[in-house]
Amino acid sequence: MATTSDIRNGLCLHYNNDIYKIVEFLHVKPGKGPAFVRTKMKSVTTGKVLDNTFSAGHKIEEVRVETHKFQFLYNDGEGYHFMNTEDYTQIALQETALDRSDLLKEGEVVTVLINSEDNSPLSVDMPASVILEVTHTEPGVKGNTATNATKPATVETGAEVNVPLFINEGDKIKIETVKGTYKERVKE
């Protein structure tokens, strides 16, 4: 049994007859009253996000997980197919197991959390950033750069990201996967 002091991002736990993954947490110690932990949890089965508050010292039932590297192969409409990079076994996951499926490119290597009790895949952790090519964006307007102006751009996976005006079609850009935001232009 773990307690609230063991809560961290990515921790999987049993809660309300389901398995949840901690997405965000904040330890709060108010001036008056007992301390507590405010969490944002995502169900690994339904994808539903739940805000919950645990009182300090509350016992939580942790799920033992193993992490394995998997390569994304393809999406056939029914699921996302991955291959283990060590033993080449393949698994198919529903979209609810992925946080940012719109930024997932074929060949991308991700970390899959697997429940060590029954070997079922729980969720997919994307890399911190991905490099994608811009397939469509409007040309920037000259003289409109006095502020941090941005424009929408569509990348090769179909996701739409706001980028600075100097980004053109064909440019490769680095995107932060947690927020889905533009980070920098990548030179070949």
Task: Detail the topology: elements first, then pairings.
Blueprint: E1 2-3, E2 12-15, E3 18-28, E4 36-43, E5 49-55, E6 59-62, E7 65-75, E8 80-84, E9 90-93, E10 109-115, E11 121-125, E12 129-137, E13 150-155, E14 160-164, E15 172-176, E16 181-186
Antiparallel strand pairs: 1-6, 2-3, 2-6, 3-4, 4-5, 7-8, 7-10, 8-9, 10-11, 12-13, 12-15, 13-14, 15-16
Domain Elongation factor P C-terminal: 130-185
Family: Belongs to the elongation factor P family.
Pathway: Protein biosynthesis; polypeptide chain elongation
What can you tell me about this protein's structure?
One of its GO terms (biological process) is peptide biosynthetic process. Pathway: Protein biosynthesis; polypeptide chain elongation. This is Elongation factor P. The structure is a single chain. With 188 residues, the chain is mostly beta strands. It has three domains: 2-62, SH3 type barrels (Roll), CATH 2.30.30.30; 65-125, Beta Barrel (OB fold (Dihydrolipoamide Acetyltransferase, E2P)), CATH 2.40.50; 129-186, Nucleic acid-binding proteins (OB fold (Dihydrolipoamide Acetyltransferase, E2P)), CATH 2.40.50. Helix content is 0%, strand content 53%. The protein has strands at 2-3, 12-15, 18-28, 36-43, 49-55, 59-62, 65-75, 80-84, 90-93, 109-115, 121-125, 129-137, 150-155, 160-164, 172-176, 181-186. It has a six-stranded antiparallel β-sheet with strand order 1-6-2-3-4-5, with no helix packed on it. A five-stranded antiparallel β-sheet has the order 9-8-7-10-11, with no helix packed on it. It has a five-stranded antiparallel β-sheet with strand order 14-13-12-15-16, with no helix packed on it.
